[in-house]
Task: structure prediction
Amino acid sequence: MPSSRITGVGKYVPKQVVTNNDLAKVMDTSDEWITERTGIKERRFYKEGEESLSQMATWASEIALERAGKKPEDVDFIIFATLSSDYFFPGSGVLLQRSLPFRNVGALDVRGQCAGFLYGLSIADQFIKTGMYKTILVVGAEIQSNIFELSDRGRSMSVIFGDGAGAAVLEATNEPGRGILATKLHSDGKFAEELFSPNPGSRKKVRLSADMIEKGELLPYMNGKTVFVNALKYFPEVIREVLTECNLKETDINLLVPHQANARITAAIQKELKLPDDRVVSNIHKYGNTTAASVPIALCEAWEEGRIKDGDLVVLAAFGSGFMWGSAVIKW
Ligand code: ACO
Result:
């Protein structure tokens, strides 16, 4: 049975840098508050007309394809993880499909929020293992700067999230013990309303009205403490689960690439798994929390910095809204 290797990674982050001090000019917050609680110093916000979700995904994909030595027409399937698609429908997978000379291949949007890229990676891995496809493009991208309000009432969430895109090319390999060794996916819907955006959903007869906007009913909600507690439980658990399946231990990890939820969450996972700084990727200070884009951006950046070498054991893990969480072990 073939397995899947990541043969190319790419990323695109918007040009516009927004610092904590920039946010403090438009809402009652401070660099100190944001840095202390989240580790974030700055994030990127897209510019309408210059950047869009599918355009950022396209730029990230072009880099990943070039690094993999592949052309768009070599791709057999596209997986696009996002919670912030260009349109309400159709999904952004088809917009990516039309942006480059891909064939009329399948294009699947995945709604796994912060765990979206892990879900996408696992789906791609299964398609490659069954022999159905040989080359799959998996993307995680978000534009969130227009979801959260840059105001006092929106500050608890708007200071945390940012925009960006990351991409990975997966290819079939017959080399034993190489590539994605295992993936694990989980969910627990009893927490669905602990981190969610109820509107404009289909539960209400009137999905959208001026009154709803005025009352702030379009703003997402997060129970920060519940998210924190569960992230600290499920991140280490799902990392240990996937390692155990491969008969590996925490000490075997060369590089852990966790979803960049919050620097305090990453620090707690690192402590729990007893990993030194050089074995854990943390770039949230530069980009904020980019949800489905955070793992592929962090993976790409680590690769660009020479932190991932041939044969390294790389572990990816994510946890977020749903709650949904997952992990992957890769022999690079
Ligand atoms: N600037 C200044 N003050 C703020 C801000 C802000 N941006 N946001 C909230 N506050 C105020 C609140 O109004 C509150 O004031 P009060 O005490 O007068 O009522 C005070 O700061 C404390 O608010 P809390 O919500 O209790 O803040 P907390 O210390 O819990 O920190 C945070 C919030 C950072 C979200 C924290 O709960 C946390 O780290 N949670 C983990 C979840 C997380 O990181 N989620 C983001 C990613 S989700 C994911 O990717 C899985």
